[in-house]
Design a protein that fits this description.
Elements (H helix, E strand, L loop, with lengths): L1 E6 H6 L9 H15 L3 H8 L5 E7 L15 E5 L4 H10 L5 E4 L3 H9 L3 E3 L1 H7 L2
Parallel strand pairs: 1-2, 1-4, 2-3, 4-5
Helix pairs in contact: 3-6
Protein name: YacP-like NYN domain-containing protein
Organism: Pseudonocardia thermophila
């Protein structure tokens, strides 16, 4: 199973759509889009350049971590970072088995997860796959 770890803040922040006015709402929309995309996991896997099946872990931090009423899917894990998201993302990635791909544009985070054996891709690949 391919493990995909999503840097929620980085993905949401990659589009200037007013997310900063409602961080909880932006997190809710991202989680909903991920849950919907997981309804067709083969399409999502193809867009990310990985093999299905997938399990997606989305890490939320700051105000976004307080979002409630998040959609659920059996292959979607919402991780609420207790402090900074990058540390949590690195810890989640390091604790997973198999192929691990981190979705982020953060260069330092990409280097950190690569040192632990994970690969990374930018948010654009994920965003094009989301409904």
């Amino acid at each position: 199973m391919t493990q995909v770890v999503v840097d929620g803040a980085n993905v949401v922040g990659s589009r200037p759509d007013g997310w900063w006015r409602d961080r909880e709402g932006a997190a809710r929309r991202l989680v909903a889009a991920l849950a919907e995309a997981l309804a067709e996991p083969e399409d999502l896997a193809a867009a990310l350049g990985v093999a299905p099946p997938l399990q997606v872990h989305v890490v939320l931090e700051g105000r976004a971590a307080h979002a409630t009423e998040l959609p659920e899917h059996p292959d979607l894990v919402v991780v609420r970072a207790p402090a900074d998201g990058d540390t949590t993302i690195a810890e989640v990635a390091a604790g997973l088995m198999g192929q691990v791909v981190v979705v982020t544009a953060d260069r330092e985070l990409r280097q950190t997860v690569a040192a632990g054996g994970a690969s990374s891709i930018g948010p654009g690949a994920l965003l094009t796959a989301l409904p």
